[in-house]
């Protein structure tokens, strides 16, 4: 996995941080946050917080006490130890797009299928720059709603040997993910010692945690599996239109969700989540890759560091309907601040298109190229006698060239980033090759990767036990 040791952007002054701190304190204590779960309300009530109907009015100092219990850094084990990851500090881990109901292949936009889900899982396995296939890479609409989480989890566990995300549609689905993880790793005690899955718990913004998400949170936190407590904020719709107001709301929602996890199991791992963008004020449509979302991301990173929390944000997001120039520059507008902020867990790093409604095969490859290039750019520059290359100047002298110099010949294979997707051919050579643009080249790359895919090894007995579990649970669920 990637370690980002570059300096972080600090865009908030001490006065600005103090104002934001006062802002979230007022929200949680005067407006309160709704929790649509009696279990959650009982925990908060027992902890001395004021509860009225479903609203909890928090003592801000109590919230800070709970935040202090959460680990600053933790490990997540993959079934292949070489793919295990670290969350927090200077570590950055990248996962694929999450949640689209549609897919795009070339010119075709259609409903996602289970075969698409498996194909994207294989692509995530094939690109080393991705640390995870994610979770709901796309929503397989050709499988039964009540049991598709079993097939998705099985695919993530068997078609990859990387970290995967848990299903969060319900507490039942979360329990199935935990049970299957225990089978894969050799017991619940094993996965409780070192977590093996990360799960996304979204807030129903503004200021409400709904029952389904909370039921999943209870299961995962009780099992010591990290959850990403994420406000879902589109400024102008789910939060006020100003970035400071959105940041304050984000803090109030995420902090209170983290507090619940610490009441469920003190010391369990959590991730401060951020999904922050805005809407088009002319049409009401969500927009991504905007300057405001990039600025909010940089602020979120500084806030997370201030409170000692690992955080999730960013990705290769775009509002574009196709993998075109807009898709590329909007993805960079989000992915660059993702690196500048030192985001620890990066969802939507590959494949996001059309405002998150579409998982695109071509965009998947384009985004992999983008992440690879940024990882190369954010590696520290080594400056020593060899890299200063004085001997090359002695050899070449004045007015010569360095193409054949010994210094060049020793390093030409590794001295520069070699693109996966980009073309630097001259025009004539490019035309002889068919004049294919980036999206067309991406098509060839993903097709080749799928053709060359090799399933990672897995013990036959474990595979059989997982498949038996899926079949049994499918019958129990009525599918």
Give me a quick take on this structure.
Helices cover 46% and strands 15% of the residues. It has 479 residues and is an alpha/beta fold.
Folded structure, characterized:
This protein is globular. It has helices spanning 14-31, 38-46, 60-69, 114-126, 148-158, 171-185, 188-193, 211-222, 243-264, 291-306, 325-340, 361-377, 385-388, 390-396, 406-411, 427-432, 438-452, 460-476; strands at residues 2-3, 33-35, 50-52, 55-57, 74-76, 85-87, 91-94, 102-105, 108-111, 132-134, 163-165, 197-202, 208-209, 227-230, 232-235, 270-273, 275-279, 286-287, 311-312, 345-346, 352-353, 358-360. Helix 5 (148-158) packs parallel to helix 6. Helices cover 46% and strands 15% of the residues. The chain contains 18 helices and 22 strands. It has a domain at 2-9 and 68-377: TIM Barrel, CATH 3.20.20. Strand 10 (132-134), helix 5 (148-158) and strand 11 form a beta-alpha-beta unit. By secondary structure, the chain is α/β, with parallel strands linked by helices. It has a six-stranded parallel beta sheet with strand order 10-11-12-14-16-19. Strands 3-4-2-13 form a four-stranded mixed beta sheet.
Helix and strand arrangement:
Elements: E1 2-3, H1 14-31, E2 33-35, H2 38-46, E3 50-52, E4 55-57, H3 60-69, E5 74-76, E6 85-87, E7 91-94, E8 102-105, E9 108-111, H4 114-126, E10 132-134, H5 148-158, E11 163-165, H6 171-185, H7 188-193, E12 197-202, E13 208-209, H8 211-222, E14 227-230, E15 232-235, H9 243-264, E16 270-273, E17 275-279, E18 286-287, H10 291-306, E19 311-312, H11 325-340, E20 345-346, E21 352-353, E22 358-360, H12 361-377, H13 385-388, H14 390-396, H15 406-411, H16 427-432, H17 438-452, H18 460-476
Parallel strand pairs: 2-13, 7-20, 8-22, 10-11, 11-12, 12-14, 14-16, 15-17, 16-19
Antiparallel strand pairs: 1-7, 2-4, 3-4, 5-6, 8-9, 17-18, 21-22
Helix pairs in contact: 1-9, 3-9, 4-5, 5-6, 5-18, 6-8, 6-18, 9-10, 10-11, 11-12, 12-17
